[in-house]
Amino acid sequence: MTKKIWVKFRHSTLGEVLRSLIPNFLVKTLFHFPLAFLAVLFYRFPAKDLKVIGVTGTDGKTTTATLIYHLLVKSDKKAALISTVSAKVGLKQIPTGFHVTSPHPWKLQRLLREIADQGYQYLILETTSHGLDQHRLFGVNFLAGVITNVTPEHLDYHQTYQNYLQAKAKLFRGVKMAVLNRDDRSFDFLKSVIPQKAKIVTYGIENKADFTPQTFEFDCPLVGEYNQYNCLAAIATATLLGLSRPKIRKAIATFSGLAGRMEKIDEGQAFEVFVDFAHTPNALENVLKTLKKKKRGKLMVVFGCAGERDQGKRPVMGEIASRLAEVVVLTAEDPRTEETSQIISQIVKGCQKAGGVEGKTFFQIPDRKKAIEFAVKKAKEGDLVVICGKGHEKTMCFGRAEYPWSDQKEARKALRKMR
Predict the structure, then answer these.
(1) Contact of 85 with 96, CB cutoff 8 Å
(2) Of 100, 122, 326, 386, which is most buried with the most CB atoms under 10 A?
(3) pTM, entire model
(4) Residue with more model confidence, 264 or 23
């Protein structure tokens, strides 16, 4: 047994070790599916009484799902939301987990039963590729499926982009309505798997689509082209569900955004600070391109990459960061059982590919608290600092333990300390 494998096993539970030795399709068939089936039986098929709209994609799922929920609620529809951030059932907000994935089948079916018993008509359900692939959403008959985009992600689990796309496509195989991104590379494939009788509507900016900024004019406080796509996806869905255009326009203008999504941190400093969840190459590039147009001085980004996840994206994100930002600070982001310094060294390769020079344009500071303090101290009037990767999350994982963490709190502490 190699040292690398031994280190991995040493930090793993018995269940994780056994799972690593069993083919994934057997785990899904013999463990995940029976578990999901029993959960559906125990809670008496709760989804049958709900109109469920599933939202999937690589980036923008949570924002789009919350936008659809917001449009329905503002139009006096009785709607609930289950996202990777939380579940919203009336005035209750229920955490759904530490990190981004669909809830465990028992938790999901219990929430669905609560939502159905309270007489809700609509449920907006954020659906992840892991959740779809592992049968966690078994028993949920989706009225509509919505896609944001599909870029390479979670390849540590899915192995190939095509497998990843196939997992996303599972959402659309039985829907009655589908909302597709006309500009995304996934469009043709997803369109081919949708049932013939299903109604398909499209949205986009670059290509001809049913919903574009020209065919449906709207104002929304969210910034960035990627948020235009999120808004258009929500608008197309709301229209499919029968909401009127005036109500949609009025509601979308009041959407204030989500915690950890381009969230501004203001302690009276002479430069701007934002916290964003961007943790994929596509999301990081979109955020930095948007902020690059906004900044007056230097653009500075603090980020890392998660341990035990797709290693191939690490140098890609380093290249993106060094190409678009003047200052890059590399740090920890849920390293789990990997060494933070090793993860950073892989990101560095991308920084160097883009022409970055250590100590001048990029810096390695494994301690995330110190990394944020460093960026804040280095910023001058007119600069813009964005802290990426954690967003709304309230913990950070080291080894197998979750420790309390908040980028927002640490940024405010750093700003107050500087002041």
Answers:
(1) yes
(2) 386
(3) 0.90
(4) 264
Return the domain boundaries, the chain: 19-252, 263-418
Cβ atoms of 249 and 232 within 8 Å: the answer is no
- How many angstroms separate the CA atoms of 102 and 50, rounded? 18
- Yes or no: say if 181 and 202 are a contact pair by the CB < 8 Å rule: yes
Q: What is the spatial distance between Cα 213 and Cα 229, in angstroms, rounded to a whole number?
A: 9
Residue 362, strand partner residues: 328, 358
Q: Contact, 347 vs 334, CB < 8 A? A: no
Q: Do domains 19-252 and 263-418 have the same CATH topology?
A: no
Give yes or no for a contact between 105 and 140, defined as CB atoms under 8 angstroms apart. Answer: no
For residue range 178-220, list pLDDT tens digits in order: 999 999 999 999 999 999 999 999 999 998 999 999 999 999 9
The three-state (H, E, C) secondary structure of the chain, written as one string:
CCHHHHHHHHCCCHHHHHHHHCCHHHHHHHHHHHHHHHHHHHCCCHHHHCEEEEEECCCCHHHHHHHHHHHHHHCCCCEEEECCCEEEECCEEEECCCCCCCCCHHHHHHHHHHHHHCCCCEEEEECCHHHHHCCCCCCCCEEEEEECCCCCCCHHHHCCHHHHHHHHHHHHCCCCEEEEECCCCCHHHHHHHCCCCCEEEEECCCCCCCECCCCCCCCCCCCCHHHHHHHHHHHHHHHHCCCCHHHHHHHHCCCCCCCCCCEEECCCCCCEEEEECCCCHHHHHHHHHHHHHHCCCCEEEEECCCCCCCCCHHHHHHHHHHHHCCEEEECCCCCECCCHHHHHHHHHHHHHHCCCCECCCEEECCCHHHHHHHHHHHCCCCCEEEEECCCCCCEEEECCEEEECCHHHHHHHHHHHHC
Residue 308 CB partners (closer than 8 Å, separation 6+): 156, 336, 337, 338
Q: What is the domain class of 19-252 according to CATH? A: alpha beta
**How much is the pLDDT for 17?**
53
Q: Residues, the chain, total?
A: 419
Question: Any residues with CB less than 8 A from the CB of 336 and at least 6 apart, and which?
Answer: 11, 306, 307, 308, 397, 398, 399, 400
Homologous superfamily of 263-418 = Mur ligase, C-terminal domain (3.90.190.20)
